[in-house]
Amino acid sequence: MRIVKTNCNFEREPLIAPFGFKGGYLSELWQSVVMLEDNKGNKGIGFGTQSTLWSDASIFISNSESAGNSMMFLMTSFALERAKEIDWDTPFDLLDKILPDVYQHGKTITNNPHLRLTFALNALVAVDNAAWLVYCKDKGITNFDDMIPADIKPALCQRHSKLENIPLMSYNVPLDKIVEAVKQGYFFLKIKIGSDPDKDGNLDKMLQWDKNRLREIHEAVKNIETPYTDNGHIPYYFDANGRYDSKDRLMQFLDYAKRIGALDRIILMEEPFPEEFQKDVSDIPVRLAVDESAHSDKDALVRIQQGYTAIALKPIAKTMSMSLKIAKLAHEKNTPCFCADLTVNPILVDWNKNVAARLPALPGMKIGVLESNGHQNYKNWEQMKSCHPYPEVSWTNVKDGIFTVDNDFYRQSGGIFNSTDKYSDMVK
Question: What is this structure's pTM?
Fold first, then answer.
């Protein structure tokens, strides 16, 4: 296959309020749109949501928010030009061939020789999605099940009928809003920890803030029951985004959790340590998950060998191609996976949902899960949702904290093979 025409564009989507994690705060997220056309006239329109803070906090901190986003978008544009110079058979081939060059280009334009690979993968999500659609048109594939390669199908063998929508509770979400969400049916809480309360980098203050956050949330929801977990309790999913510097400091947090009766509620602890932390973690008494440090399937294998026992898949942040390779590896290593969000737009939610609906349930859970927090954070969420090919169907909308993924969802593949006039017009 050969790409002969390309185009790209973006929209800036403001957030309702500053969105805090990794010690920083986002005010907007850029939505990229990409068009690829091959030499047979097959076209694909792909989408991406850029998050410089998530993919490389050093870029976010050392530049203005708009400058960081501009750098990532320039990498997307560069990838399109590079794609026109390459022959490829599958989207995996295309990604393998352009990723090294896009990554190197990113190091140049950011003036950062230590740029994280995830920054380049985030820039390539829209390109990769468009490549999958071009590939499927060329092969006559019209649904997600047929799109999955045979050697990866065992990793995506489930067909859930329900997915719990995991909301994200960032630093500045007040306790009453968390309790309100639980009462609305959102029983699986993703809680950001690792705050820098006085903006001075003091990790002792961070630990105390995290303990206080755990205590107030646990006290508020510990007696609420749910039928969707094995123990009947609300599960906690803590995301530290690499803010803990040592196992000792993390154990202080977990010992405190045990002391207040919250340890057995922690179903996941994601990325507690920075990427360069290479110690064995198999003795940590909760399930540790990797996210941004598992850039590729090779990185994921290293993390599994270190003792991490879950992987956050992010087709909407690291490309569908890379995520499918990671899912295959995780299945072979008996490591549970789940789909995490990047605060993406409604169409990308369904790219993610296609994977989440087919992953085995996490240990301790009775149904599948999917993190999706765009409705909490985008100022124009309802307007964005109106651009989804199926904005009003049951599987697009959450009821009582749950996505119902019925036969129509599987038949339509979440709408990812359909486009809308708005986005087609943006990349004519």
Answer: 0.95
